[in-house]
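**Archive record**
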Amino acid sequence: MTPRNYLYLLKKYDEYQAQIERLLESIVTSLSPNKLETGHDQLNEVVKRLHKSYPFVELLYCLDENGIQTTESAASPTVPDPKRREPGFGSDRSNRIYYSRARDNVAAATVTQPYLSSATHQLAISAVQRFIDPNNATRYLVINFNLEKLITFLNGDSLRRVVHPLFQVVYGLIGIMLVAVSMLLLFSAGQSLYEMIHEHTNTATQAFQSVILVTLGLAIFDLGKTILEEEVLLHKDIHHTGSTRRTIARFMSAIVIAVSIESLLLMFKSLLGDATHLNSAVFMLFAAVALLIGLGAYLKLTSEKR
């Protein structure tokens, strides 16, 4: 599973803050708070209904005017009991940011900034609706939303996220196989070097063969490492051109390095007596330069600061 990138989530929140706040306010104000304090079962039904339409809904509960929780926390199906790290009914929430902001806010609905939830230990946003109960006492209806799932919902990435682990497995296998091939090449280079030292036959040819194997292993290892880092270990935002730009730059850099190394090896081989490789070496060098110029032009044209 791809590690959570909190900086990415916070950046996305800053980008769509106005839209997110309007959406969450509309959700919390669509409920009738006075009808929700009657029982825990009713709260659970409301959360399940909300979760069907808004899969980023996590918890729902009520507070009194002093910030004390007056109901059990009703959780969505994606938040099982083991993930809820603290008690519900009777908990003192008076020191929580969502309570203090809702208490001091003139408007009835309040949406907080992202924070690390003490209940799920993930980035969350709370929407609070202040209301007056039948006993003329101030109450607060609180809904907690998972920020990561909220950003996914807004991006329309729900289906992609379901199949994304499968893609990661495939990329992981490809990356591991490439690394394994590079290790075999390096092992073969070590064997060639050992034979050259102990047998002292065709030293120049065997040394050149060892260099070829090592450089090929280096190029293949770099390609496998790039695949693992870009597709498995790092969080990629496919909706942002910067992510694609970084991936293309890294792959093209690996190809340019490989082509440059092979052209130099062919040139060295021609200097050792096999002149038939000289033309190929020159053409490969031209190809490497053309790839490098093309990559530079691409990076320049896609730069956000241009």
